[in-house]
């Protein structure tokens, strides 16, 4: 399946979602409540076979957060970016994709550590860069630290 065929497949099978063409990869925007279901379908469908999560990250779009999942098919050699928006800044929570790809464990630990986003059904969500006593989440745009932030 080439890039155009993938785009057509996504348009037919995910017509209720926003599909954009970026410079490198197609981007599929889905509601956060459906992320696990959509990614599971993309992984298990033999037409797409997205068998690898190679990046998961967050962006603070203040006031919302954007989670970005980069997935690839080693069989077909195509890539896809899947994005969700988390609007609840005070209690940002989303389903973990660890049940689909174990690689998500450390990505989600880092996102939690830097942004404070909680992942349900994560095996052991923890801080991996900062101490447990650290107050706040340094990659949030509203993070305040008078000693470390140059203004």
Automatic annotation (TrEMBL):
Record keywords, A-Z: Oxidoreductase
Main EC class the enzyme belongs to: oxidoreductase
Span of domain NADH:ubiquinone oxidoreductase 30kDa subunit: 28-144
GO molecular function, one term: NADH dehydrogenase (ubiquinone) activity
A Pfam family matched in the record: Complex1_30kDa
Entry EC number(s): 1.6.5.11
Keyword Oxidoreductase: yes
InterPro entries referenced in this protein's UniProt entry, alphabetically: NADH_quin_OxRdtase_su_C/D-like, NADH_UbQ_OxRdtase_30kDa_su
Homology family: Belongs to the complex I 30 kDa subunit family.
Full protein name: NAD(P)H-quinone oxidoreductase subunit J, chloroplastic
Gene designation: ndhJ_10
């Amino acid at each position: 399946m080439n890039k155009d065929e993938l785009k057509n497949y996504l348009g037919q099978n995910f017509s209720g979602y926003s599909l954009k063409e970026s410079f490198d990869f197609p981007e599929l925007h889905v509601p956060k409540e459906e992320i696990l279901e959509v990614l599971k379908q993309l992984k298990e469908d033999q037409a797409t076979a997205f068998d690898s999560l190679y990046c998961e990250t967050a962006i603070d779009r203040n006031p919302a957060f954007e989670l970005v999942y980069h997935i690839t098919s080693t069989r077909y050699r195509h890539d896809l970016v899947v994005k969700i928006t988390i609007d609840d800044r005070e209690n940002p929570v989303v389903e973990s994709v660890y049940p689909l790809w174990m690689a998500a464990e450390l990505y989600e630990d880092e996102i939690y550590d830097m942004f404070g986003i909680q992942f349900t059904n994560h095996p052991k969500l923890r801080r991996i860069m900062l101490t447990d006593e650290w107050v706040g989440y340094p990659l949030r745009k509203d993070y305040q630290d008078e000693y470390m932030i140059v203004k």
